Every structure is written in structure tokens, then in C-alpha cells.
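seq:
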Amino acid sequence: MNNRDQKLISWLFETNAVRVCPEKKPFWYTSGTIGPYYINTHFLYGSEQKANELLKIIDEEKTNVFKCPVTVLHLTWENYKKDPIYKGLIDETVGFIRENINLDEVGCISGGERRDWFFSLIIADILNKPHVTIYKDMASVISVKEQVDEINDLASQKVLHIADLITEASSYERAWIPAIKRLGGEIKWSVVVVDRMQGGGELLAKEGIQSFAMVNIDKGLFEGALNQGLIKKEQYDMVVNYLESPKESMKKFLLENPEFLENALNGDEKTKERAKLCIEKNIYGLK
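struct:
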């Protein structure tokens, strides 16, 4: 494992961007399933609190499509100057892009609402590339530093999209790729901070997009965390079993720990709701 990987793993756990559950206490997910880890890539902004504060500002500003990119760029630069983890991540990502992509071929960099902007705007500025800010409704503006303009035609430019996270690439498929195509450009590269390894990279490959990730959510990540003393062996074992077989490993856990489901049904409202959903959908075939 190289020095970059070690730093990235350390930062992910230090900011709680990746959280692994205590032994025998998996997390409840919105879907009614359970699992041993949570991923919130935007916490790499420095902390959960700082990330949530930026999201709140974005939500307040995004109705003004021309002002929002300037506000976010200014705030991310301010944070870059103050937060060593965020600065380290941005510097490592910029270095990674320079090593893996011929920047002479990149016409502009894009980022989609909202969490992509934590990373895409400042990286575009550092690399001296125009930034296409894409909103969820596929409205887009183009900016260079604090100059933001309407955009009607990218004139066949090749685009590098920077995102916080890729799972199944549904946001790319639904909005980011069509938005750039509609403007006459083409996304040719994607760089994400975290790839959850759930098929997103494969989908992008079918679209002719080269997919890169700073970190993959795989056995190697958690092995690195174990070696750095960031998680315990029991946590590591639970995660590895889950990565190999998410449904079967959690079914086995529930059968061996029946009190877990009982406690969830008597827990807080959110936990109770997710536990009920698990039972109603018979997700793990326990009936």
C-alpha cells in the first residue's frame, strides 16, 4: 500500500467519512437492510459539522445558479487554507489527475449538485480549467474563478467530471451525462473520491467514460485501516464477510443474534421504522 493510500484511509476514518460499527452492532440503512459501515465522503471537508454547514449554505444559495458556484468556490478555498485534511485530499486528487489524465485534452471540468461541488470547483480552479456547474434539473452554468456565464454550446469539448462518490452511477446516467451531451460536450473521464464498487465504474465504461477513484470500498481499504489500528479485528472480520456476501452475512448475524432485531423494534422511531421495513419485506428470509 503506497503513501497516498495510507493517508487517504487515515483521513476517511479521522473525519468519520467511513464509520465501521462496533462488534455485533451493525447499522440500520434506510432500505431496511443492515450493514457494518457508513460512508459520507463529504465529511472529508474536515468534519461532519463543517460538511453539513456547507450543504446548508449550498441549499440556501442554489436558487441563484450564477451566485452559487462563486460562493462555494470561495468557501472551499477558505477551508483549504485552514483544514489540513481537506487540503491534503485536494492536493492528492490534483496530483492523481495530473498523473492519470492528459490535461491538454480536457476542455473543462464538471460537478453535479451538491456534494460533487465540495471537490470539483476548487480542483477546476487549481487546474485552470473552466467549471460546468450542473444542477439536479440539468440546468448548467460555466465559470472561471468568479466569472459565471450562461452556457449553450461546449463545442464538442471533452469533459472531466469530478464527484464525491460513485455507487451505481445513477446520477451520471440520469443527469450529469445527459446535461453535458445537451450542451454539445462529452464526459470522457470521471474521478471520484470514493467508489463503492457497486457497478458504477462498469456503467461508465459502457458510456465510453474512463472511471478513476481515489479510494475503493473493498477488502484492501479495511485491511489498511486494520493495519493502522483504526478498526479492530472483529470489525474487520464483519466487514469482510459483508463485502463477500452482504445478504447472507447479515442473515447469519440476525439468526445468531435474535435480540438485535427485538431491540431495534423497541428502539427510537427511525430504528423501529427500519426494523419494521426489514420484517415486512422479509429481506433476510427469516419468516
